[in-house]
Amino acid sequence: MRKLINLEVNEKQLKKNAQIAKERNIRIPTLEQMKNPKNSPKIIKEKLKTTGLWDIDPVNLFRITWKNEPLETGGLYQDLPNYVEIPSEITGVKARIFAMAGKFFPIGAHKVGASFACLVPRLITGQFDPSFHEAVWPSTGNYCRGGAYNSTLLGCKSIAILPENMSKERFQWLSKVAGEVIATPGCESNVKEIYDKTWELKRTRENVVIFNQFGELGNHLWHYEVTGNAMNEIIRAEAGENGKLAGVCLTSGSAGILGCGDFLKERYPGAKLAVGEAVQCPTLLNNGFGDHRIEGIGDKHVPWIHNVKNTDMIIGIDDIDSLKMFRLFNEPEGRKYLQSIGISADAIEKLSWVGISGAANIISCIKFAKYYELTENDIIMTVLTDSAEMYQSRLAEMESEYGKYTLANAALDHGISVLGLRTDHVEELIYQGKKRIHNLKYYTWIEQQMYDVNELNEQWYDYDNYWGRLHQMGPEVDQLINQFNYLIDN
């Protein structure tokens, strides 16, 4: 059985990496500090007081946490993550839906955490040489932004790869941060084209290291440790005497974030993990294909790091509903409509935290609540990967295509694409359904990406050992980070 996350140390290169970090005044946070950022070193917190949330500064590695104060500059940490409860007047269901906000990470999206957990183990073991290697970040959007950001902070060269039809804001941002940006054909669902480009780079450049978010188990581990703990703190704060966790509903991009569902199901055995995807590309539901507009979801394959055996439900989401909810929450007339139905000003302001994939996550929660006939005692957790800031060009495109947004549009969109949601395109998974989805990994990962078929079988037939070992690796990673920081300081 292979090492799930390779932590084998190259002592000679490790010392060189520590020296580079020392010269750049870099210190690396542990997973434990990301869960409990108030335990960060005092010198770090002092510097954060004069550093902008989105600044390209190594100290912002210590802002890779769900608990940043929602301030553009000088903020420290708060006791609970940034989150919003989506009002029942909006959702039309009794269940309480809580969504954690990715907006207040350094790149405005939580993918900066996932990419950190892929790059840092290579650095702190000496497997990656910043003076020679280039870090390649294949992505359907925010992950390559996170990878480029972390690479820059950690003194590494970066190459970002993403589909050409992603939002203009992503490309504009990457042009200022990434060393090189490569646009591949297609949209969010064209993942294979991204993979093909990584193979081309591997054949033509000897110094590239591919950090494939769909196959990097560090992505899963970061969400298991950091996102899972953050969600659990919200549940404990909000549950009261009768509240209980009914489930976690998340769309599957790289599937890394599904690791938080593993964490919560261990602590709340009755909870379920539901995975959303676009009905225009029903890969998990129907072995399907197609194009869609929910940016950030990769399709036409099952990610290697998706723990399929622990997934209870697949929920199909129409991208039209996601776009209409996004517009309802972020257009001025949409906000006037929400105010007219009794939504508080504070809640309306926080709805700007909802991007297109965040809207898809909320829709999956609503369909989940309707399917299981949940009550006001039931809690559903989800995340808002990024915010409306990444999609202002999409709002302009929709206005050009459909016309100026009006109160009547808002009422229609709310009635049809939110209150009118049904439980169609939903599959509650039994054993054979899970096995069908797991088996789809073979075609992408064994036939195309040259992964080990024995490990594929371990994921299923040696389930407790495989995923259990991965979930216990956080302290090992933290120990190596502490040792690396010691080398920097001495």
Which short descriptors sum up this protein?
single chain; 490 residues; alpha/beta; seven-stranded mixed beta sheet; four-stranded parallel beta sheet; globular
Tell me the β content: 5-15%
Structural class designation: alpha/beta
Assembly context of the chains: single chain
Can you summarize the main beta sheet? Answer: 7 strands, mixed
Kindly report the spatial arrangement of strands forming the biggest sheet: 1-2-10-7-8-9-11
Number of helices: 22
Number of strands: 11
Overall form: globular
- Classify the helix fraction into a percent range: 40-55%
How far apart are the first and last residues' alpha carbons, in Å? 36 Å
Uncertain regions spanning at least 5 consecutive residues: none
State mean pLDDT (0 to 100 scale): 93
Radius of gyration, rounded?
Answer: 21 Å
Can you lay out the helices and strands and say which pair or pack?
Layout: H1 11-23, H2 31-35, H3 42-48, E1 83-86, H4 88-91, E2 96-101, H5 111-125, E3 134-138, H6 142-153, E4 157-163, H7 168-177, E5 180-184, H8 191-204, E6 208-210, H9 217-238, E7 244-251, H10 259-267, E8 272-278, H11 283-286, E9 313-317, H12 319-330, H13 332-340, H14 345-350, H15 356-371, E10 378-384, H16 392-402, H17 407-417, E11 426-428, H18 431-439, H19 441-448, H20 453-461, H21 463-471, H22 474-489
Parallel strand pairs: 2-10, 3-4, 3-6, 4-5, 7-8, 7-10, 8-9
Antiparallel strand pairs: 1-2, 9-11
Helix pairs in contact: 1-22, 5-6, 5-9, 5-22, 6-7, 9-10, 12-13, 12-15, 12-17, 13-17, 20-21
